[in-house]
Design a protein that fits this description.
By secondary structure, the protein is an alpha/beta fold. Helix content is 38%, strand content 17%.
């Protein structure tokens, strides 16, 4: 119900830009430009073991930070389209194009159950759906595979350092039994809205590999994509 209310409220209430707060526009042209950059490979420091190659479009700062927080925490769901477009660019940069390798399989990193319930939506999954639509419009075969599950409770990552985040997430994710066979159907790309320490993506990669992706010979080809990353990861 909360998600439905946000959708309806966005149609009837005054809006402001999710990046700078300018009135009468959910996203102004100036802020949209921040998500139009060429995707680049990013690497957190220290880089957690098992982290796949990750591409991102923009540093997590200024308007981009504001947009991601507006979408995730304040339910400005209309931003999913432009954020998904940026994610699609990062997916393309890391995964290449079409061919015999099959479609792109976007596997979103799930939020903690409590966080999803509190927000009324799963931000990474919503952006992944928008990215898939953008990839398809560009002629790329793509689908979302929301196959990752949390098999134990995890603490809120906010305020935790790199080591604490790794310990918090270690062994927390698993691929749903029904989703295991689906991972062999194309090029798997782990997706999230943001990379900071890389702990979430490294744990997701471990879970996917343990589910059998490594046995299919595709482990080395596993990639990841995010909308934004910590500024230091771009250096």
């Amino acid at each position: 119900m909360r998600g439905w209310w946000r959708e309806i409220a966005g149609l009837v209430l005054p809006v402001a830009c999710g990046g700078c707060g300018k009135p009468r526009s959910e996203l102004c042209e100036e802020c949209a430009v921040a998500l139009a950059a060429v995707a680049r490979r990013v690497r957190p420091a220290p880089e957690p073991a098992g982290l796949p190659v990750v591409h991102a479009v923009a540093p997590y700062e200024n308007a981009v930070r504001a947009m991601l927080l507006a979408h995730k925490e304040r339910g400005v769901l209309g931003l999913a389209g432009v954020l998904g477009g940026a994610l699609a660019a990062a997916v393309r940069a890391g995964a290449g194009h079409g061919g015999s390798e099959g479609p792109l399989l976007l596997v979103p990193v799930p939020s903690a159950r409590r966080a999803t319930a509190g927000r009324g939506h799963d931000p990474a999954r919503r952006i992944a759906v928008a990215a898939t639509a953008e990839l398809r419009r560009g002629g790329e075969g793509a689908r979302v595979l929301a196959v990752l599950r949390q098999r134990r409770a995890v603490a809120d990552q906010a305020g935790l350092g790199a080591r604490q985040r790794h310990a918090n997430l270690a062994g927390a994710l698993v691929v749903a039994e029904a989703g295991r066979r689906l991972l062999d159907g194309g090029r798997v790309v782990l997706v999230d809205d943001l990379l900071t320490t890389g702990s979430s993506l490294a744990e997701a990669a471990r879970a996917v590999r343990e589910a059998g992706l490594g046995d299919s010979g595709a482990a080395e080809g596993l990639r990841a994509a995010v909308v934004a990353a910590s500024p230091s990861a771009f250096s």
